[in-house]
Amino acid sequence: MNVHQRDEIGRAAAAFDQMATALEADRADRIRAQARAEYLQQQTESILSEQHEVTGIVVTFHDITERQAIERMKNEFISIASHELRTPLTSLRGSLGLVGSGLLGAIPERAEHMIKNGDRQ
Questions:
Q1: pLDDT per residue over 25-77, tens digit each?
Q2: Which of 12, 25, 43, 115 is most buried, most CB within 10 Å of its CB?
Q3: CA dihedral of residues 87, 92, 97, 99 (deg, nearest 10)
Q4: 1 inside domain
Q5: Which residues, in sequence order, are CB contacts of 78 under 8 Å at separation 6+?
Q6: What predicted TM-score, i.e. pTM, was given to this entire model?
Q7: What does the mean pLDDT of the chain come to?
């Protein structure tokens, strides 16, 4: 093996070491990010002696971040669906009110009854 080959192997080994260090740092960052909980639910229980005196406390925390995210998505969906349903109904109600007012001309009695039923709230 000549000097040039040893230099190439040395540079490749150094590059590999740098890459391994970077991957390990990235992995550690991802683990820390996954371990960080945004929402915690706390539960506390007292430990009682036979004389009913508090001798200790057990505190547990539950990560409810995912549950909160699902709840937020559900509320957003309901809000959007409600808005999308109200928008055309408001438009229809306004149109029925305009037609039912007679401003656009006379309407047959049968149609008037249907318009008044449709315009009810």
A1: 777 776 666 666 678 889 999 998 899 888 899 999 888 888 888 998 999 99
A2: 115
A3: 150
A4: yes
A5: none
A6: 0.43
A7: 79
- Tally the domains of the chain: 1
Residue 100 or 31, more confident? 100
Instruction: For residue 61, give every residue at least 6 positions away whose Cβ sits within 8 Å of its Cβ, in sequence order, or none.
Output: 37, 40, 41, 42, 43
Q: State how far the alpha carbon of 64 is from the alpha carbons of 24, 34, 36, 67, 68, in Å.
A: 28, 13, 11, 5, 6
**Which position has the token pair 């669906």?**
81
Work out the pLDDT band at 3, boundaries 50, 70, 90: low
CB-CB contact of 40 with 61 (8 Å): yes
DSSP letter for 38, please.
S
- Run of H or E residues at 50: none
Residue type for position 26: D
Supply the range of the domain harboring residue 26.
1-36
Residue 77 counted as domain residue: no
Beta bridge partners of 62: 41
As a whole number of Å, the CA-based R_g of the chain is 35
